[in-house]
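Repro:
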Amino acid sequence: MPKSITHIGICGAAGRMGRALIHAVAAREDVKLAAAIERVGNSLIGADAGEMAALSPMGIKINSSLASQIDHVNVVIDFTAPAATMENVALCRQEGKGIVIGTTGLSEEQKHFLIEASHDIPIVYSGNYSVGVNVSLKLLELAAKAFGDTVDIDVLEAHHRYKVDAPSGTALMMGEVVAKALGRDLKDVACYAREGHTGPRNRETIGFQTIRGGDIVGDHTVFFMGEGERVEIRHVATNRMNFANGAVRAAAWIGSKSAGLYDMRDVLGLK
């Protein structure tokens, strides 16, 4: 019996991640591009999505309205901006469509809206869709439990000069995994800057350091720093296809799932 095809709509299709997502969809046989959405006024509206991504024509024109295309898709992949993502989640909730969210920089209120919407539709929300990053998260959980309160912990992340949010969603996700493993609340222990005479370090804190410059795709290192030894768990991304492949994998996975809020570790069976 042939495997069912998941019809995917991509929001943010003309961006760097959007183009990578189109390539990732084209490379799989169990998914098909059904809609490509960009914001109103984008110069590529009306262009063929395949040609825009330097592929053969796909017969899908870039459109400015997800609502006009929602009937053609089973799952939406959204890599846009927080406000646009919330609008797309609301539409998917109304129409009973699953959604995979890669947008970072969501507020606590926006994250709460995802929880509410997940009572009605399946949602995958992750700060990073790379398989390697999510394996790293498992390693971080193991390391944090093993070291406990015997080490100081910092997260260092570096991205290209155009990234607008800091720390990155991946860095925060790493910090949350470590904090949870230690029985801490990241909102209470995160330290986002050190300057001047800070005094001795509080071991309860989890530090975040941010670098922005050049064309760095993504570089994350978590330091577990003890007396006489230091463990570093690092992930380096050299192109965006690992993120795109993971997001499309999540979209294919969520197509058969019931309502709920999932992350990439659910998709990979790492929980």
